[in-house]
Amino acid sequence: MIQVESVTRVYPGPGGEVRALDGISLRVEDGEFVAVKGPSGSGKSTLLLAIGGMVRPTTGRVVVDGTDIYALVAGERARFRAEQIGFVFQVFHLVPYLSVLDNVLVPTLARRGGDDRRAAALALLERFGLSHRLDHRPAELSIGERQRVAMARALLNRPRILLADEPTGNLDPNNATEVMNYLGEFHREGGTLILVTHEDLAAKYAGRTVRIHDGQLLEGGTTT
Question: How wide is the angle at C-alpha 52 spanned by C-alphas 188 and 70, nearest 5°?
């Protein structure tokens, strides 16, 4: 279970403080598929990164399965994130000089024990229809193929939680539907999925939609 408890995130700005998140509380049950909708600049991506251990709240807590993730030291938090949480972004964050296979294997660098995940990476790439692209670089792939590589990378460590930030934002309708089908499959297999989106297509796949505006939840959560 994910619990966001009275979380604020404040950034300094030229005209004073900017509250990207303003007292948000949200609970996501194990195995739930939640869509977070809101306009650009509403705070939805900041919320996702806070849940994922990437942006420390100014105040409040983020608790995942009983662990206050920002009470962990940096190394422990990175290990927790690598073992429990996968990320899919609109900007794919692929390493341009690495092959498709090596891009998928990047998360193994943060895993304790240095497990050999090559076989798992190959299986994922076959599942995503990319087994013929193993040695290609990201620049040699279509946009849809790059997103599938990013999804394979996110799933390599078999995370229980997947955080997706506008994963269909750069895709045409056919590729967008394909990506949403893959995300739906992750959810049907028991994974917990939080999807940030401003698109109706993506939100239609979710079991619950919460709406955010100016750093506050307007629907589907509580604001304190």
Answer: 135
Region of residue 214 (left: phi > 0; alpha: psi -120 to 50; beta: else): left
- Summarised one tens digit per residue, pLDDT across range 77-118 is 988 998 899 999 888 889 999 999 999 998 876 554 445 678
Instruction: Give the orientation angle of helix 118-127 with respect to helix 143-155, to 10 degrees.
Output: 140
Asked whether 88 and 154 are in contact (CB, 8 A), the reply is yes
Ranges in the chain, pLDDT < 50: 112-114, 222-224
Residue 99: predicted pLDDT: 95
DSSP alpha helices (H): ranges in 111-210? Answer: 118-127, 143-155, 173-188, 200-204
- The model's pTM is 0.89
The order of strands in the sheet holding 192-197 is 85-89, 161-165, 192-197, 33-37, 208-213, 216-219
Q: What is the pLDDT of residue 113?
A: 41
**Beta strand 161-165 pairing with 33-37:** unpaired
Please state, in angstroms and rounded to a whole number, the distance separating the CA atoms of residues 21 and 35.
Answer: 17
Quick one: CA dihedral 51, 57, 60, 65, positive or negative? positive
Rounded to the nearest 5 degrees, what angle is found at the Cα of 174, between the Cα atoms of 203 and 92? 75
How many other CB atoms are found less than 10 A from the CB of residue 132? 10
